[in-house]
Amino acid sequence: MIKLIVSDLDGTLLNHSLRITETDWEAVKLAFQEGYEFCIASGRMHSEIKLLMQEFHGRYFAVSQNGATIYKKDKELLSDYFFEPKVSFELHQFSSRNPHFVSFIHCTDDSFYTENRSEATLPYESRILTACSDHGDLADALKNGVIKSCKYSFFGEIDKLILLKDELQDQFEGRIESFISANDCLDVMPLNVSKGAGLSFIMQELGLSRNEVACIGDSFNDLSMFALTDHSFAMKGGHPDVKKKAAHVTNSVAEAIEHIITYNRSLEARR
């Protein structure tokens, strides 16, 4: 029996207008009514997840910032992970040497920064639901651990981001994780931090096995979750390589939730 439903946000529960469709919203409500545990697993910060899910305050788990922060239903922080100051500073230097990418530094306290705010950064800032923070000497704050960074995001053309990913993995081998999280975004995380690692933490908290969890996602940062369950759903509009790794391909979160409920009812009918 599936007991926990996990959904990504962007490209999955959120459409391109950063909204949840009425059909998907009603399906999430039905999942709560049917007694399912629910978890949002996203590259977004927890503060953003709270804004989007405020109607269900206190009723869902959250794996935010690709697993850097993990929250219980009562919003208690279960765990957080961040870069060692030396790695964070070196990543900042790397970013400074690649100014043709727009980059943001995200922190465990849900603040985020960019080295040089400009017209080029504004379109990307507008996609984030909270305001960018300022710091007088960002490099020094990262180097001395004043700012605890947990995610670096690089925005640009996908072909160039793939090359950047390879360069980062070579330069920071054994110290980072990296994956394409959108068609114009590369996320860099501390080593062994991922949505899958965060979900594993919650599965242990709830005492669930892989057959009791269903995951819905659309991008490469969701694959670590797909690996933990027999019930993975890739969005139809997702990358072909992501869809190949999923047990099912779905048109919407609502369709996936309908499938999950039907699956459980079929199991109950056999008893």
Automatic annotation (TrEMBL):
Q: Which InterPro entries match?
A: Cof, HAD-like_sf, HAD-SF_hydro_IIB, HAD_sf
Which Gene3D superfamilies does the annotation name? 3.30.1240.10, HAD superfamily/HAD-like
The UniProt keyword set, sorted, is: Hydrolase
Please provide, alphabetically and separated by semicolons, the GO molecular function terms listed in this UniProt record: magnesium ion binding; phosphatase activity
Q: Name one Pfam family in it.
A: Hydrolase_3
Domain of life (superkingdom) = Bacteria
The record's section on PROSITE patterns has: COF_1
Listed GO CC annotations? cytosol
Q: What is this protein called?
A: Cof-type HAD-IIB family hydrolase
